[in-house]
Write a structure and sequence with these properties.
The complex is a heterotrimer of chains A (412), B (394) and C (361). Chain A has 16 helices and two strands. Chain A is mostly helical and 412 residues long. Chain A has two domains: 77 residues; 229 residues, MetI-like fold, CATH 1.10.3720.10. With 361 residues, chain C is α+β, with helices and mostly antiparallel strands. In chain C, the strands form four sheets. Chain C has a six-stranded mixed β-sheet, sandwiched between helices. Chain C is elongated. Classes of the chains: A mainly alpha (412), B alpha+beta (394), C alpha+beta (361). The structure holds adenosine-5'-triphosphate and magnesium ion.
């Protein structure tokens, strides 16, 4: 009870303090510092107007500076020093060297890259699908709010929910995890072939085709004749993107072969979270499950913003529903798709709770954020932890620059 | 779209079915945990939650026969019921762990040494023996019983009221509330003023500031952990030294004040960005008209902008509330791990570590922690969506 | 090559009947204009022909083939939307070639068709631009070009000029007229609010009102021999004046004695039995001429509007005398406040009973 009173009184003090600050500082400015009367009234008003924005901004600027800007600099500094006893010594890039010599770090990097490709892509794709489908049916809003619901659930709560899904019991006991229960239904028969070979194969093939299309779309302006190739940077970026896409497409095809050649351990309950490499995907599913709702809500608004008559024109032009979707609607909401994608990318880079709660980075599921947390609070190695934090910062920097660039464009 | 001539209705059906599948996929995991939270620990581990609604075929723990021995016609007889009460219905039973399903209800088992055992469907048993069974170990019955669906709220009672391993969820709930509410309200106030200045006041460097805020929007808060913790510790230490606070009264670097400030700092970029976007969209005429009428900026802000910005304020409030309520990292770092400071997410992670197999506790705890955000979500979804759109589609 | 036939076509949204009993025959090469008050269902009818709205009753045939359930793309139609409906992410060339690409035409064929359409519409310099880099008039031409390349049997236009300014509207109207000339074998259906567009472009006008067709005819037919009061008032500006009266003499010419005083003679023939019939006569403002003899109308000019070539005289409503408008050639501001008597050529006096013209009995 006393805690409730404590909390309430802090709210009162905090809010009251804020209001008092804004009110009193304005009053002080207008009545005492630059009063709008006397011989200098005109000049005073101008001065007060020049100062007032900073009064309004001051608390925010202090908080932002102290809690976001300063830590970036401080972390950068911490990543270059080593605590030796009570003193801190500048060690240059030694922390980075140590970090890059750790296999756990590279494992985190690999996993983070995996997360970076899979989660935004899958969330956006599912979100787009859900948005397009639910917009066309009467009970769409109800469906939307159910798909959106995981947004409200904490990463930890979601982890518990999915841990139950992934739970494993010994062979001779009843399975209580949904995934194992489903898995044990497969025994190598027709259904197994259909669902575990053909369906994934089709999915992989579709992804590969999508990637190939991406390669083509990226290369077309570069290869095409004419002077509209754009600057060298653009060309290089396109080539880079095309190379990445092509590599991914090859991986997809590789897996496609794998789907048909792998021998599946039918009848064996699986401990999903300990299967190296693939367990990453089981963790990602949790985040995809959460982020799809977000993508869906935003993309659905964007889809509804697509002018109805362009769709009707396409119908008259003879486009089928798929062509309308991919060639008329999707290109028109490309801007929104990019925004959704980058937003989820940022979430992915910070993902920590899910890994901590589900595997704590064991079985090769470590990610950067959790690696860093490990270094900070379990190994108490501030130097390497800070170096890891800087790597995360480095990874978001392109998005940061791009965001600022866009915002600037908008401001003009 | 439905009106287009010659449109196949098969496609419409495909859409309906796909949406049903999608929704199921998204709801079933949560639903599973919800169902589990109302089952006893035994039920949870002995059958999947999806069986909870049907009659349960369940292998019971072995029950050792006990009762008063009577002598009837030269044989020693013990009569009784295996369960004492019960709607439980036995479908199969046995007398050894190797063959727990050897007999049908009503069958008589020959246990050797002249002993026979009969077990009825409702658990009534009759044990007869040629010799007295006094001071011998009576046989055990392995029964497979079918029980009707049964749900309990005992798990919730347990996690909320009785501390588990010294950690009470009820307490954690209060702690979370203590973190979340001030951490929601304070940034809104600060951000609202800043957003107004950035939207409607002219001063040099405004564009630069806006760009900076957009940049800070993506700064990972992981970066802030150690420097800020150091800062908090240093601040606490300085205060302790200047005011001579020691022992119990000494401030610690970890505490509610610290986490409120941290959440405020981390929430501000989004708050300012969202609110500024919204405020810029307010009609210029209203603001200029008020200026002509002689209102000061402070009055314009409190009398005009704040009321008009209510939707944006509400949507950010929901965001920030969900975020602070659901946060784990900031709480782990800036708040102590003591009983009076642990939040729900932290508690849940601990439970996952220490009692990972106790699903009844986990499920109930998880749902206690999810309940408030879900409530907020379903009652204020409209604002949340509006906020999302204002924040991303611009 | 494309005869359209609508038989008892109807449209309802649930219980709401929007259109019913639409019967219409459209011959190859005609340019049919749909006019009518806002909300009367012009767009709906056009979209039903396009296939964008399901037809809920009756039959719609193109060249004798029932089209009710044929998807839009297979009806051989092209549509130009009021808001142009250009695909914003495609260049002009891509916009125009989209339909052909979907139809799997060869690149050579596509380029030829696009280049030809671009030449006709003077769009060649803009082929590689995105729609957002075009002016309103250019966008409109791209929209038309997009339909031309498909070489459809039927062109559908839904208020294609309403987003253009006055001068551009006239220019584009003329372009459309020329386009029509150059394609004598294609049928066009055109929805508009603008009477001038309707009168100048149409080979026949369809007046829609109250959920059905009010009258179908050439522009002059509608102007000279409206079937009912609605059409009479809808066509022409300012609207036709209507005056109540009673038939006093019948025969090859009809004499009507008007309630507000005055007598009208019309060349509409009547039967002996019509004597005493309550009727309403209609005279267009431009058909009134000042007179000293027997008058149809006599009243005080309340207001004059000199438009240069003509002057509008507004007469005030006064007791059971209706307020009317007359249009006289030249400038007549001096008539304001004066009493003026007006009459009209019997051939220009329409007679309605129960809202319907006696001419069409
Ligand atoms: N989905 C619908 N449900 C019910 N009524 C509708 C629907 N769509 C249109 N209507 C009604 O159908 C009628 C005809 O609409 P339509 O758009 O064809 O009018 P219009 O003649 O083109 O008008 P305008 O000249 O203003 O474009 C209107 O009264 C409208 O209210
Ligand atoms: Mg219309």
């Amino acid at each position: 009870m006393s805690q409730a009173i404590f909390a309430l009184s802090t709210i009162a003090i905090g809010v009251g303090g804020c209001i008092l600050y804004f009110y009193a500082s304005n009053l002080f400015l207008d009545k005492v510092l630059f009063p709008a009367r006397g011989p200098n009234a005109g000049r005073n008003i101008n001065r007060a107007e020049a100062v007032r924005p900073w009064l309004f901004l001051a608390p925010a600027l202090i908080a932002l500076g102290l809690y976001l800007a300063y830590p970036v600099v401080a972390t950068a500094w911490l990543s270059l020093v080593k605590e030796q006893g009570a003193t801190r010594n500048f060690v240059g890039l030694a922390n980075y060297a140590q970090m890059t010599s750790e296999s756990k770090f590279w494992e985190s990097m690999r996993n983070n890259m995996l997360w970076l490709f899979v989660v935004p892509a899958a969330s956006t794709a599912f979100g787009l699908l859900a948005a397009q489908l639910t917009d066309r049916i009467a009970w769409g809003n109800f469906a939307k709010s159910l798909i959106f619901m995981p947004m409200a659930i904490s990463f930890v709560g979601a982890s518990v929910i999915w841990k139950l899904v992934y739970d494993t019991r010994p062979v001779d006991q009843a399975q209580i995890g949904l995934l194992n229960a489903v898995w044990l239904q497969f025994g190598g028969g027709v259904w197994s072939v259909l669902f575990l070979r053909i369906l994934p194969a089709l999915l992989l093939a579709a992804i590969a085709v999508g990637l190939a299309w991406g390669v083509w779309a990226l290369l077309r302006p570069v290869l095409g004749s004419g002077g509209s190739r754009g600057s060298l940077v653009v060309v290089l970026l396109r080539l880079l993107g095309a190379a990445v896409f092509a590599a991914l497409a090859v991986v997809m095809l590789w897996w496609l072969v794998g789907v048909f050649t792998v021998t599946l351990p039918y009848g064996q309950p699986q401990t999903w979270l300990t299967i190296p490499f693939w367990n990453n995907f089981f963790l990602m599913i949790v985040l995809i499950w959460i982020q799809t709702g977000f993508a869906m809500v935003i993309l659905s608004a964007a889809l509804r913003g697509v002018p109805e008559d362009t769709i009707e024109a396409a119908i008259i032009d003879g486009a089928n529903p798929f062509q309308i979707f991919f060639r008329i609607k999707v290109p028109q909401i490309m801007g929104t798709i990019v925004v959704v994608w980058t937003t989820i990318t940022i979430v992915v880079l910070k993902v920590f709770d899910i890994v901590l709660a589900m595997t704590n980075g064991q079985w090769e599921t470590q990610v950067l954020a959790n690696y860093m947390y490990d270094k900070f609070f379990r190994a108490f190695d501030v130097g390497v932890g800070s170096a890891a934090a800087m790597v995360i910062m480095l990874l978001v920097t392109p998005i940061l620059v791009w965001n600022v660039w866009n915002a600037r464009k908008e401001m003009r | 779209m439905e009106n287009i001539a010659g449109k196949r209705s098969a496609l419409t059906w495909a859409v309906h079915i796909s949406v049903v599948l999608l929704v199921l996929l998204w709801v079933v995991p949560t639903f599973g945990l919800l169902v589990s939270s109302f089952r006893t620990g035994d039920q949870i581990v002995s059958s999947g939650w999806w069986r909870a609604f049907g009659t349960q075929e369940q292998q019971l723990n072995p029950i050792r026969i006990a009762g008063e021995e009577k002598e009837v016609d030269g044989r020693f007889v013990i009569e009784g019921n295996l369960f004492g009460n019960s709607k439980t219905v036995i479908s199969l039973w046995g007398t050894s762990s190797r063959e727990p399903t050897a007999y049908q209800p009503g069958d008589t088992a020959d246990l050797g040494d002249g002993q026979t055992l009969t077990v009825q469907e409702n658990g009534d048993f009759v044990l007869t023996s040629a010799t007295s069974t006094k001071d011998t170990r009576l046989p055990r019955v392995f029964a497979t019983a079918s029980a009707p669906p049964e749900f309990t709220i005992q798990n919730y009672r347990n996690v909320i009221f009785s501390p588990l391993a010294g950690q009470s969820i009820g307490q954690a709930f209060l702690n979370t509330l203590t973190v979340a509410i001030p951490a929601t309200i304070i940034p809104i106030l600060i951000a609202a003023f800043a957003a107004y200045a950035l939207a409607w006041m002219d001063f040099p460097g405004r564009a630069l500031l806006i760009a900076a805020i957009v940049g800070l929007l993506v700064v990972p808060l992981q970066l802030a952990l150690i420097p800020l913790l150091n800062l908090h510790n240093w601040a606490a230490m300085t205060i302790n030294e200047t005011f001579g606070l020691t022992g119990d009264r000494a401030l610690s670097g970890k505490g509610y004040l610290g986490i409120w400030l941290a959440h405020t700092g981390f929430g501000l970029p989004l708050a300012i960005y969202l609110l500024r976007n919204y405020m810029v969209g307010l009609p210029r005429d209203i603001i200029e008209n008020a200026k002509v009428d002689g209102a000061t900026d402070f009055q314009i802000f409190t009398k005009i902008i704040l009321p008009l910005s209510f939707p944006a304020l509400a949507s950010f409030a929901i965001f920030q509330f969900l975020w602070t309520w659901n946060d784990l990292l900031v709480a782990l770092v800036f708040l102590g791990t003591g009983n009076d400071q642990q939040v729900l997410t932290g508690n849940l992670v601990n439970l996952l570590g220490s009692r990972g197999g106790d699903w009844e506790i986990l499920a109930a705890s998880a749902f206690v922690s999810i309940a408030v955000p879900l409530l907020v979500f379903f009652s204020m979804q409209r604002f949340l969506v509006r906020g999302l759109l204002a924040g991303s589609v611009k | 090559m494309a005869d359209l036939k609508l038989i008892d076509v109807a449209k309802g949204y649930g219980d709401v009947k929007v259109l019913s009993n639409i019967n219409l025959d459209i011959k190859t090469g005609e340019l049919i204009v749909f006019v009518g008050p806002s909300g009367c269902g012009k767009s709906t009818l056009l979209r039903m022909i396009a296939g964008l709205e399901k037809i809920t009753g009756g039959d719609f045939l193109i060249d004798g083939v029932r089209m009710n359930d044929v998807p839009p793309a297979q009806r051989g139609i092209a549509m130009v939307f009021q808001s142009y409906a250009l695909y914003p992410h495609m260049t002009v060339r891509e916009n125009m070639s989209f339909a052909l690409k979907l139809a799997k035409k060869s690149p050579a064929e596509i380029n030829a068709a696009v280049d030809k359409a671009a030449r006709i519409l003077q769009l060649t310099p803009y082929l590689d631009r995105l729609p957002k880099a075009l002016s309103g008039g250019q966008r409109q031409r791209v929209a038309i070009g997009r339909s031309i390349v498909r070489d459809p049997k039927v062109y559908l236009f839904d208020e294609p000029l309403s987003n253009l300014d006055a001068a551009l509207r006239v220019a584009t109207r003329i372009e459309i007229a020329q386009l029509k000339e150059s394609m004598p074998n294609s049928t066009m259906i055109y929805v508009t609010h603008d009477q001038v567009e309707a009168m100048t472009l149409a080979s026949r006008i369809v007046v829609l009102a109250g959920g059905g067709i009010s009258q179908v005819g050439t522009p002059l037919e509608l102007y000279e021999r409206p079937q009912n009061e609605f059409v009479a008032q809808f066509i022409g500006s300012p609207a036709m004046n209507l005056l109540d009266g009673e038939v006093t003499a019948t025969g090859a010419q009809t004499t009507v004695s008007l309630t507000g005083g005055g007598t009208a003679i019309s060349s509409v023939p009547t039967r002996e039995s019509d004597k005493g019939l309550k009727v309403r006569i209609g005279v267009r403002p431009e058909d009134f001429v000042p007179t000293d003899g027997t008058h149809i109308y006599q009243g005080t000019v309340a207001l004059t509007e000199a438009l240069g070539e003509v002057t509008l005289l507004y007469f005030q409503k006064d007791g059971d005398k209706a307020g009317i408008v007359a249009k006289l050639p030249g400038i007549h501001n001096e008539l304001r406040g004066r009493v003026v008597r007006l009459t009209a050529d019997p051939r220009k006096v329409h007679v309605f009973h129960d809202g319907k013209s006696l001419l069409y009995r």
